[in-house]
Task: structure prediction
Amino acid sequence: MRRFVSSLFTASLIAAVSAHAFGQTLSADERKIVDYIDRNGGAAISLLEASVNIESPTEDLDGVKKVGELYRKELESLGMKTAWLDLPPELKRAGHLIAESNGTRGKRLLLLGHLDTVLRGEPYKLDGTRAFGTGVGDMKGGNLIIIQALKALHAVGALKDSRIIAMFTGDEEDTADPIEVSRRDMVAAAKRSDAALSFEGTVLNTATVGRRGFSSWKLEVTAKTGHSGQIFRDGMGDGAVFEAARILNEFRLALGKEKYLTFNPSLIVGGTTVETKDADGRASGKTNVVAAKAIVNGDLRFISEAQKLAARARMTEIVSKSLAGTTAKITFEDGLPAMSPNEGNYKLLAELDKVSKDLGFGAVEALDPGERGAGDIAFVADIVPSLDGIGIGGTRASHAKGESADLNTLPMLTKRAALLIYRLTR
Ligand SMILES: [Zn+2]
Result:
């Protein structure tokens, strides 16, 4: 918290100083980009307000498209070529907006935002410098930073030369299956890019070089059943509930301390009869009957594909060592891949760090990968160097009511993003 407050202080102090204060480290064009962002703060906030006031939970296909249309107009006015990428109707998602500049110089960049929100909309409301409303941080604020940065580049004539793809997905919060279809266009865009930047909310003075992926698992145990007085005896065995308990405890002992790996049993049912459906479970069993079945559902979070596969192998091995009279099996389902920290990601971070220092905003460090949930960047992070967590700052509660973002951070973050994009595309 202290660090948050002091960085805000620095930001407002710097904003008060004239552009000439950092004249040595910024080129003439870069100073013009900074000036543009300072002069157009009001218009930026109006665009944020307009976007938040269009409700766009993932399942509201019209709302998601309307937010896309709002951005599309802005991006077309910069001379970018735009398209709406539909998904097959059975996926029940709105599709994605893509915009492209068609220059010939510098690194080819992929910028990622998303149009959808988790919840239905709470309208935009300003309280001092804190803006409230569904999606204001996650990630209509981040989308705004992309658009303002591109506008600033356009204002100095630097956009037309560049090779930038901006992509705004319509289903980041609830990615449509199969991902081979719903993320095909994103993967294709990454394959013709040299780096990807994603604008999920920042934790101030950090950026994300790695984030964990997740998958789910289901453990199913069956056992001999009979009178409870026979448990542990030859011919009866230990029952399904003890076997489930053994397995979970061995998971914890074997893997519970591994860095960046977590596995959470989220639902457990055991008894004579059991069933589960999605996040619900039912069970029945009298106290004098040995449990015949147990089911456990859980998730698994990991920092690399190798860590995921090793953990799955260890879990499967533990499951196979059944107690007497029981058998068990575990099945895994892929969720989102991990964004593994790598040298290319750290190089992008170093570029951002330099931009930030040149602007007088201080150092930018890597956020602990364990602190960040899964996101769209993970679908391309194994294709191109990637950086995430450079969207609007001071965000709160994006998956709950009362979402808000700190508008004080907006000029600083927009300048950082604009100069990072500018320098990468020179
Ligand atoms: Zn998001």
Observations:
- The two ends are 37 Å apart (CA to CA).
- Confidence is low (pLDDT under 50) at residues 1-20.
- The pocket of zinc ion is lined by residues 114, 138-139, 172, 200 (CB under 6 Å).
- Residues 213-336 form a domain with the Alpha-Beta Plaits fold (CATH 3.30.70.360).
